[in-house]
Design a protein that fits this description.
single chain; 6 helices; alpha+beta
Length: about 375
């Protein structure tokens, strides 16, 4: 099916439709396993910490006690002369009016493949109380892992802050401002097994079973031309058997557990590489509607239908009709027969609303209302 884009006249809305071109002319697209799933354990991790930003233009945390205490402690550790009372508690009144300092929350994302000491990552800086971080410089800040019960310092962050959006000056970033001090390993093999996790858009019991069968066919009768050891043992290049047992088991609609075959035990990366490159024909999923409200984009699959409904919008009324052998829409100044069909498609509704000059926001609200009423036959995704 070839997607076509129709732009609604007079509005910033793009309607992406799966047009009704015959599937005999175009074969279904071929994907690889890596396109629809990922390895369990290969996930991003977040490092976080609290730090101080200095050098602000009077937009800092003046009078905020946690920030003042942190500044006093930092100055003491760096050899600054901070007075203390008889109990050894720092006297903070000398610096409690500092306006160019702010306490911030610092985060950095470790990629799915992990990170090694010396790697540099982008870090994000978010103000807690300051009005703006413009012109600020992050002081050396230790970043910890997501688990508070294991306060391991994985990285150090520092550097001048760049404000990405001038309308939101309380958030910025530092390119390569986070330097890894400890390794973050992402283990993906457990008891000589790996687990594949299907993407949410492809997760279903049918797809999980299809992936299980694909992997088992590959490991029981497949032959990899890239496997040199197999080629030496089988110089004719004919199909050889990796294992007489099935190695893949679908646990549920999301997870497929795969045992690494004996021939690949010492080369698991090679096995995973070949596994993820297996070709897979993914069927179309056209019973889905995706709405991106901020951009005013509506993506509609051609199989999405609606039950007979009557819609009243301001000074117009439009209704779907499911007459015998035909369906269509009747609205103010609009009357169209769509030919033989059992149900009215959402595409037809949007076309009718477009001809009636219904604003984009109202059009999206109508689709939501139909879904809430239970008359939308398809999945609605709002982003």
């Amino acid at each position: 099916m070839i997607p076509s884009v129709v732009r609604l006249t007079g509005f910033c809305v793009a309607l992406l439709l799966m047009s009704g071109i015959s599937t005999e002319s175009f074969a279904q697209p071929e994907f690889t396993l890596r396109d629809i799933c990922r390895l369990k354990g290969q996930e991003e991790n977040t490092l976080q910490g609290l730090g101080l930003v200095v050098g602000l233009k009077g937009t800092g945390d003046s009078g905020m006690k946690p920030a003042i205490r942190a500044l006093a402690r930092t100055m003491q550790l760096m050899g600054g002369q901070i007075a203390a009372d008889i109990q050894g508690k720092l006297i903070e009144k000398d610096i409690d009016q500092a306006k160019n300092v702010a306490m911030v929350f610092v985060t950095a994302t470790v990629p799915a493949a992990g990170a090694q000491p010396g790697d540099k990552l982008l870090c994000t800086i978010s103000a807690i109380n300051a009005k703006s971080l413009e012109g600020g410089n992050l002081m050396m800040t230790p970043l910890l892992g997501p688990r508070a019960d294991k306060p391991t310092v994985y990285a150090l962050a520092q550097g001048p802050i760049t404000i990405d959006n001038v309308r939101i000056p309380t958030t910025g970033y530092i390119t390569a401002g986070c330097k890894m001090e400890a390794a973050v390993q992402t283990e993906f093999i457990n008891n000589e097994k790996i687990t594949l996790i299907l993407e949410s858009s492809q997760s279903s019991f049918g797809m999980a079973q299809q992936v299980e069968d694909l992997i088992n066919d590959f490991t029981t009768s497949g032959f990899s031309g890239n496997n040199k050891s197999e080629q030496r043992s089988n110089p004719t290049g004919s199909k050889s058997s990796f294992s007489s047992e099935k190695v893949a088991v679908a646990i549920d609609q999301l997870h497929i557990e795969v045992r690494i075959p004996q021939v690949y035990r010492e080369r698991p990366v090679s096995f995973i590489s070949e596994l993820l490159n297996l070709p897979l024909v993914v069927g179309k999923n056209n019973k889905r509607v995706v709405i991106r409200e901020r951009e005013g984009i509506v993506v509609i699959g051609d199989d999405v239908t609606i039950a007979p409904v009557a819609i009243s919008h301001k000074n117009l009324t439009i209704s779907s009709k499911a007459a015998s052998g035909s369906n269509g829409f009747v609205g103010v100044g609009y009357d169209k027969k769509a030919g033989a069909a059992e149900r009215t498609t959402l595409k037809q509704l949007v076309d009718a609303l477009n001809l009636l000059a219904v604003p984009t926001d109202d059009m999206i609200a109508i689709v939501k209302a139909i879904e809430r009423q239970g008359n939308l036959y398809g999945e609605l995704i709002i982003e």
